[in-house]
Design a protein that fits this description.
Blueprint: H1 14-19, E1 27-32, E2 35-39, E3 45-53, E4 56-65, H2 70-85, H3 90-108, H4 111-122, H5 128-146, H6 156-164, H7 170-189, H8 218-230, H9 235-247, H10 251-255, E5 262-263, E6 268-271, E7 288-291, H11 294-307, E8 315-316, E9 319-323, H12 326-338, H13 350-361, H14 366-372, H15 380-389, H16 391-410
Antiparallel strand pairs: 1-2, 2-3, 3-4, 5-6, 6-7, 8-9
Length: 421
């Protein structure tokens, strides 16, 4: 039954409220007409209004005391009582008003301004490379076209038009669509929007098949290594490329390597995962341990002499305070291709394929190869188990691989021995 509009005899005073002490459980301090203060165990006091609607007892939260004083609480209580007289549920009305406030906020927020909030709050654990690439797409390809549109007004047709103009770069188009979808998922979590305009565009542009980087053949390995060692490129760059080959890591891991992550005495290199902060440069969240072969240690000793006290193993030429750019390795590879010492269709990532191919041909256990390559294991428990279980075998596999490369380079006849699983 809805209340009448008659005057109420309220009973609370500031003195009574301040005298109310917290207990183990919340308890009400009645004021009148269903208005009361909830005294919380932690000592806070919250105004609430208890009432019946559709035959059921419910309540609406008004706000905290003393931020909302006794007089203001009673005025708001009277407003809610009048809403009930007009068949309006006060609790539901508060929800509607909150949604409307969010909608107004969404109108004030442009897509670009909220996208930058998302980058700051949700992309902090991504690798620096991923952050740079993703933000670059937004700045160059997205913000100029839809950045000024209010967050709540961006329509699926706007996303459609954007993506249709990217059909010649399908990988980038799919990545951009995914980023926009994730931005709107976050906006929905903040109650700013209720519709995700990128969701209907899933599958609009067919994803290209994953690129398979071809390995160096046995016949190509010798000339390649010799060319790396004897070309007239900067010595640091040549060492970096050869270390990339010996460790089977990703290109950016070598380019951004820091001495702080190496234990030369323990023969390990621990590459931080992307969840470990700004220095993390693994593609995967967790750190990856590389077991250093004798040959890798020799290269690192030479690199230490060249780095001249820099924190980076391979500092930029002329700038010790910044790491080598990844493109430096690409440029060296291009020079080798031009000289005929490297296949024209070979990419740096193919050095990982080279390790995988030779290791598989030698019978090294697939799980060991996967751990050496830091391939992502979706099951976190299994991933940790594999790292611990195969540590010794990974160490042996990388040393075997370094020896095998030396044997191929020297042209020795090698009898391959099947490795134990």
């Amino acid at each position: 039954m809805a209340p009448t509009s008659r005057a109420l005899n309220y009973t609370l005073t500031d003195k009574k409220v301040n005298a109310a002490k917290p207990k183990d459980k919340p308890y009400p301090l009645a004021d009148g007409g269903g208005l009361y203060l909830d005294i919380m165990p932690g000592g806070s006091k919250v105004w609430r209004y208890s009432y019946r609607v559709d035959g059921k007892r419910t309540k609406a939260t008004i706000g905290a005391y003393p931020l909302i004083g006794i007089k203001e609480a009673r005025d708001l209580h009277e407003k809610m009582r009048r809403q009930l007289l007009d068949q309006i549920n006060p609790a539901r009305q508060k929800q509607i008003e909150r949604i409307e406030r969010s909608a107004k906020l969404a109108q004030a927020e442009t897509f670009e301004s909220f996208a930058r909030v998302w980058f700051a709050e949700k992309m902090a654990t991504a690798t620096a490379r991923t952050q740079k690439q993703s933000l670059g797409w937004m700045v160059n390809d997205v913000f100029p076209k839809i950045g000024a549109i209010p967050l709540g007004e961006l329509h699926a047709r706007d996303v459609l038009k954007l993506l249709e103009g990217m059909r010649n770069t399908p990988t980038k188009a799919n990545n951009i669509r995914s980023i926009i979808e994730r931005i709107y998922q976050y906006a929905a979590q903040k109650l700013l929007v209720t519709v995700n305009p990128a969701e209907p565009m899933r599958g609009l542009i067919q994803k290209p098949k994953a690129t398979s980087y071809r390995p160096l053949s046995v016949a190509e390995i010798g000339p390649f290594v010799e060319a790396v060692r004897t070309c007239n490129a900067h010595l640091g760059t040549r060492i970096a490329l050869e270390l990339l080959m010996l460790t089977a890591v990703r290109k950016d891991n070598v380019a951004k390597a820091r001495w702080a992550h190496f234990d030369l005495a323990g023969r390990t290199w621990t590459i931080p995962g992307r969840t470990t902060g700004a220095n993390g440069n693994m593609k995967m969240p967790e750190p990856h341990t590389v077991y250093l072969s004798d040959q890798a240690l020799v290269l690192l000793e030479a690199a230490k002499q060249l780095s001249s006290g820099s924190e980076f193993v391979f500092p930029s030429i002329g700038r010790q305070s910044v790491p080598m750019a990844e493109c430096t390795i690409n440029h060296l590879l291009s020079r080798l291709k031009a000289s005929g010492s490297c296949p024209a269709d070979f990419a740096p990532h193919g050095l990982r394929s080279t390790f995988s191919t030779l290791a598989n041909e030698n019978g090294i256990a697939p799980d060991v190869i996967e751990v050496c390559l830091a391939h992502h294991e979706r099951n976190a428990v299994r991933a940790a188990y594999n790292k611990a279980k195969y540590a010794a075998q990974c160490k042996d596999a990388l040393q075997w691989y370094a020896n095998r490369l030396d044997q191929i380079r020297k042209g020795a006849d090698v009898i391959l021995i099947r490795a134990a699983a």
